[in-house]
Amino acid sequence: MASPVRVRFAPSPTGYLHVGGARTALFNYLFARQHGGAFVLRIEDTDQDRNVEEALGGILEGLKWLGLRWDEGPEVGGPAGPYFQSERLPGYAEAASCLLAEGKAYRCFCDPEDLKRRREEALARGEPPKYDRTCFRLSKEESEARAAKGEPFAIRFLMPEGETAWDDEVRGTVTFQNATLDDLVILRADRHPTYNFAAVVDDAAMEITHVLRGDDHISNTPRQLRLYAALGLAPPRFGHLPMILGPDGTRLSKRQGAVSVGEFRDDGILPQAMVNFLALLGWAFDGEREIFTMDELIEVFTLDRVSKNPAIFNYEKLDWMNGEYFRALPLQTRADMVAAYLKETRALPESALRDRPFLERAVAAVGDRMKRPRQFLEYAGYLYVDRVEPEQIPWAELVANPFAAARLKKLATVLSDVELFEHDPIEKATRGVAVSEGVKAGDVIMPARIALTGKKVSPGIFDVMLLLGRERTVERLRHAADRLEAESPAPTS
RNA sequence: GGCGCUAUCGUCUAGGGGUUAGGACGGGUGGUUCUCAGCCAUCAAACCGGGGUUCGAAUCCCCGUAGCGCUACCA
To answer: Which residue is nearest to nucleotide B72 (CA to C1')?
Structure first.
């Protein structure tokens, strides 16, 4: 039996949790859970200049919100800690010294600014911008003398000849010529490791068995493989996940819509929907089934069904999927979410939110028209205002209808006389008006809808009346009728 | 420029030497209905191009093209 599966998600705290990162984390999580392995969270904070104080909290929060609990890492600890690279500095320095001592790495005294300039010049000439090994040619004595004098230096890995290949879990065999790889810096002048080196040292130390990461790391893999070999360490297996692109086919950016899981959460996306949607970005079960709970994903997820091509993020499909999940939620939960949304956005005065039973009735009436909490007011906002100001187009339609005023008036009268102001009596009375007018029910209902809600679209009209109550219903109908009479000529009889 | 990866409806994808190339989102149409949503039914919509291999290629191979990624003392 092979060693137990151990995977990791290794974000650097430089920003929010991007959906691409979230998808990578999800796939790692699913793979770990399915194999009964461990999901490790490691924070790659070796670049102090780029670390953002608040970023870590957001990333952790995002992972938790998605339900991706890590077995080892920040907040929970674990046997392979610490889980912040900034706390593992001695290990990198030691590993680098070993390579230096064995002649597998060398000191580089070149000035970073100078290097940068040379690289740009090479690029401008159309040449590969590789390090020219100036410092590799230094004698051992000179190198040591300069170091002893206190001259700053970085440590570079001496890239061996030959080629490097591996059997990728999603792409099959991938091969690189080492000549196209650089003598990469493994330890910077400030004694901090660079990404490729730290990742190798830590993945080995943490006994990571599978590295599942974004496609953008594919060219890092041969470098890391060479590093494992030089260090005498057994490499993990690698799997490169396809990128997630924006609607325009380029890297998903804020310009194209929400990109961080926090934004989606604030937009009323449910974590279950996000997880399900993300799972389908670059992976499919059989091409038919689309709805999966996390547990079901854990059961059926396999790396060999991960797609090789980049996926464009489809906001509409996420919205649809969210609707699928949102509608399935119990009324209580939906009401909770709507209440939380209204409170956070202060879309309604505090007082309006106090009547919880009313809110629940309204949410029930809106029913499955709502795919996200934010749509509540779209369908029920008129319940929370003293007087509706009808939208332009619906009102114009009413004005153009010569019979509208009379029908509204009649309906108002009938409704004010209905004994029990409940759904069925209201419906019966309303339909009665239509019959006596010799028209279809819709010819009475549509004007009423506009008078009552100001819109052409609303929940069922009898639910609306019920929610409004007899008084407000009758008043709105009469008010609309009066206004109509004032604005439009009476029907020629 | 170099290196690498990829290529099926607009999008996510299934399939993979012989299929009416399947599903989902989105779109169209019809039904249910007081509108919308939902639900049901239904339609349109794809194998990047060129060469091979083969009786047969969307599927295997090569070339081209395109897209994306990497090419840092970033991760």
So the answer is: A116
Identify the three-state secondary structure at position A256: helix
Mean pLDDT of A393-420: 91
pTM across the whole model: 0.93
Candidate list A64, A116, A140, A254, residue with the active-site label: A254
The whole-number Å distance from A366's CA to B30's C1' is 26
Instruction: Give tens-digit pLDDT for A409-457.
Output: 999 999 999 989 999 999 999 999 999 999 999 999 999 999 999 999 9
ipTM: 0.94
Identify the helix (H) or strand (E) that includes residue A327: helix A315-328
How long is the CA A304 to C1' B33 vector, in angstroms? 47
Identify the residue whose tokens are 């600890």: A77
Contacts of A16 (CB under 8 A, 6+ apart): A55, A58, A59, A62, A259, A260, A261, A262, A263
Chain A window 395-454: residues with CB closer than 7 Å to nucleic chain B are 440-442, 445-446, 449
- pLDDT band for position A493 (cuts 50, 70, 90): very low
Which value, to the nearest 10 degrees, does the dihedral of the CA atoms of residues A187, A192, A198, A202 take? 130
Which nucleotides in chain B have some atom under 7 angstroms from a protein Cβ? 1-8, 10-15, 22-26, 34-38, 67-75
Average pLDDT over residues A150-174: 93
Residues β-bridged to residue A40: A8, A72
